[in-house]
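[User] At your convenience, examine this fold.
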Amino acid sequence: MLSRLLTVTSDAHDPARVARFWGALLGQEVVEDSGGVLVPGDDRRPGLRFVPSQARMARPNLMHLHLTSTTDEDQQETVAKVLALGGSHLDVGQRPEEGHVVLADPEGYEFDVIEAGNRFLAGTGFLGEVACDGTRAVGLFWSEALGWPLVWDENEETAIQSPHGGTKVSWGGPPVAPKTGRSRQRFEFTVTGDEEVERLVALGAKRLTLDGAEVLTDPDGNEFTVTAG
């Protein structure tokens, strides 16, 4: 049976430290392997992999995570846990009246703790969303690539979700920040089954040689990798 899993791979100066942070926050064990340090995902939630790199942090990042809250007190407890684990508050221009709290993990990657009552993230679980910069074409591409149906498709904004529920992956539509160089964050697509690269190319992916290795790019030109599960 064909199985496809999605992982958000991020460059990190200290992969072990930031992976431990996310593992503790999500209540997951971390796994070290030849590719870095992984907080495993499943068919409802993307994994989070951190790989060694000396690349500098440059905002805005291609993607960031949204964590959900059940009550105002739950949101405050999550923020307190983040700070205790080594995270920090982050000012990205948010307004005081906005209900979400913007934070950064120990590597500096931004993420939001969303206020209680957010209808879009209802029922997704604690890791509610991977919010990405990207066009509608990319949302349609990943829907077909993963076999995850579209759960939002309005005003050039798209979102997909596993048929089993769980974390949503969304793209905010234009304007899309111009791409300059290799992305510090990218998708890793783990699959069991043959001919996946050819299928992805037929869906609109392109082959690219980067740092001496062949990778694929989505319709917006963002690189991603395909690995055997």
Summary: The mean pLDDT is 92. The radius of gyration is 17 Å. Helices lie at 15-26, 72-85, 136-146, 196-203.
